[in-house]
């Protein structure tokens, strides 16, 4: 109930069963206002910075097959699970931060798909995130 009543009071990992996790992740879409923005992870254990944790990473909205190929799907919910995968399963926390930052920069630049009130296509938003990620990684001296 904390998530519904006071979502700003919750910041972290929620450990629960898959069924209840699906319900919570759908409810959490109230935070950004759209279900298409949020990532989700089903992990094999508790995340630990010392050990990798296997998991399934996905957007909470599912595959949205009805929207396939029309260029209107918001790619952010598909990009952000990569940022979850990196620290938990690949032990790459800095790369995860870079992905999250690239998403923030692209959104802060005003790019919006239809679900967010804009007219940018899936490809345009996705490409903008990739370009921002390249800039961030290059500035950090990483591989681009």
From TrEMBL:
Domain Isopropylmalate dehydrogenase-like positions: 1-129
Alphabetical list of SUPFAM superfamilies matching this protein: Isocitrate/Isopropylmalate dehydrogenase-like
UniProt keyword terms in alphabetical order: Amino-acid biosynthesis, Branched-chain amino acid biosynthesis, Leucine biosynthesis, Magnesium, Metal-binding, NAD, Oxidoreductase
GO cellular component terms listed in the entry, alphabetical order: cytosol
Keyword Amino-acid biosynthesis: yes
A Pfam family this chain is assigned to: Iso_dh
Top-level taxon in the UniProt lineage: Eukaryota
GO terms under biological process: L-leucine biosynthetic process
InterPro entries: IsoPropMal-DH-like_dom, Isopropylmalate_DH
Designated name of the protein: 3-isopropylmalate dehydrogenase
Organism listed in the record: Fusarium oxysporum NRRL 32931
Lineage: Eukaryota, Fungi, Dikarya, Ascomycota, Pezizomycotina
């Amino acid at each position: 109930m904390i998530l519904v009543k006071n979502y700003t009071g919750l910041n972290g990992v929620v450990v629960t069963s898959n069924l209840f996790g699906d319900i919570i992740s759908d409810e959490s879409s109230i935070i950004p206002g759209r279900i298409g923005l949020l990532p989700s992870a089903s992990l094999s254990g508790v995340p630990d910075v010392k050990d990798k944790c296997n998991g399934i990473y996905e957007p909470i909205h599912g595959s949205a097959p009805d929207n396939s190929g029309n260029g209107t799907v918001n790619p952010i919910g598909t990009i952000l699970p990569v940022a979850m995968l990196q620290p938990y399963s690949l032990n790459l926390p800095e790369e995860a931060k870079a992905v999250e930052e690239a998403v923030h920069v692209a959104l802060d630049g005003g790019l919006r798909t239809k679900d967010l009130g804009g007219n940018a296509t899936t490809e345009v938003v996705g490409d903008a995130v990739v370009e921002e990620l390249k800039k961030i990684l290059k500035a950090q001296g990483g591989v681009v």
